[in-house]
Amino acid sequence: MLLSILVAGLATFTRLASSAPHEPEVSVQLSRVDNTRIKAVLTNHAGLSISVLTPKSLFDPSPVQKVNVLKDDAFTTIAPNASLETTFDLAETFDLSANGQYTIYSDDFMLYGAANTTEIVGSVLYKSNELTIHVNGAKPALIAHAIVKRSTIDGTCRAYDWQLKAAFARCRDLAAGAARIPSITKFAEYFKTTEPRIQRIVAARFRAIQRECGAVNRGRARFNCKDSSGLCRKGYLAYAVTPGGQVFLCPSFHGLPMNGRSCHSQDKGHVVLHELTHLGEVYEPRCRDYAYSYEGIKRLGADKAYLNADTYGLYALAVLKGC
């Protein structure tokens, strides 16, 4: 069995139009550590140091989709001709329970800034080598089982019960209004196309989220308020785990307003909708994080916009508020 796996495709940031005069050259080399554990080495071939944004990239140690607020320690500075190295297990994010041969590669980009700064000035593309491995399916199956067991926590949101029910109702209303696609002009503003096929996909995803948010305790997703992975301490509002259909709500989520005042301000319903777009259990193909905020999503092309989580959240807010 030969499968191609896009390693970095599980978690990425938006690609920004570069304002830097010269895009630095980097390379990524993959190698095998053991059964499903892979080592990746990113080397800076530029003549200057750069600081790369590692969360939601190939070098983020967390095997989950998530929404986060950037902190200073999100950047890692790489000197000229120096390298950044990480090791990860494919079985944490892919079903490799079947014995067989797999081909692994990474074809993606990373945001970067000048050395020792947190100001993003551009994006740098990379494509790794292709690595072919034979996997013993029994060991990955044990890893995947452990992750699902760790992530499934019942009754952790009881203290926020009324808030979450209101957030689900808000999410349901946002999705219901957006699914009707009341304005083609507004649709094109956010999704960069009026193609009927994309309209059908967008509407179907919103209808699936509407059903999910209207089925409290009966839906396919499970919401948790206990941060079993420790990611909330890094500044996240929420994060999703798929496969598994898990959404983890961090303490900062509970501080959000129920209804944001401005057109694109975050609120609880918007975040719930955003996270549900990440779950393949709710709708396939699931969304990624190519861009955040209205300014960020404006830079996306049509091929990325309909697969970007925040595009759905912001479009739904704009439709409901008549922006």
Automatic annotation (TrEMBL):
Extent of the signal sequence: 1-19
Cofactor(s) required, per the database record: Zn(2+)
Keyword Chaperone: no
GO-annotated molecular function: metal ion binding; metalloendopeptidase activity
Comment on bound cofactor: Binds 1 zinc ion per subunit.
Domain of life: Eukaryota
Known catalytic reactions: Preferential cleavage of bonds with hydrophobic residues in P1'. Also 3-Asn-|-Gln-4 and 8-Gly-|-Ser-9 bonds in insulin B chain
Active site, per annotation: E275
Location of the protein in the cell: Secreted
Entry-linked CDD domains: M35_deuterolysin_like
Positions of Zn(2+) binding: H274, H278, D289
Top EC class for this record: hydrolase
Pfam families linked: Peptidase_M35 (PF02102)
The enzyme's E.C. designation: 3.4.24.39
InterPro entries, sorted: Fungal_M35_metalloproteases, MetalloPept_cat_dom_sf, Peptidase_M35
Keywords: Cleavage on pair of basic residues, Disulfide bond, Hydrolase, Metal-binding, Metalloprotease, Protease, Secreted, Signal, Zinc, Zymogen
Broad class of where this protein is predominantly found: secreted
GO biological process, any: proteolysis
GO annotations of cellular component type: extracellular region
Role description: Secreted metalloproteinase that allows assimilation of proteinaceous substrates. Shows high activities on basic nuclear substrates such as histone and protamine.
Family, per entry: Belongs to the peptidase M35 family.
Protein name: Neutral protease 2
Organism: Uncinocarpus reesii (strain UAMH 1704)
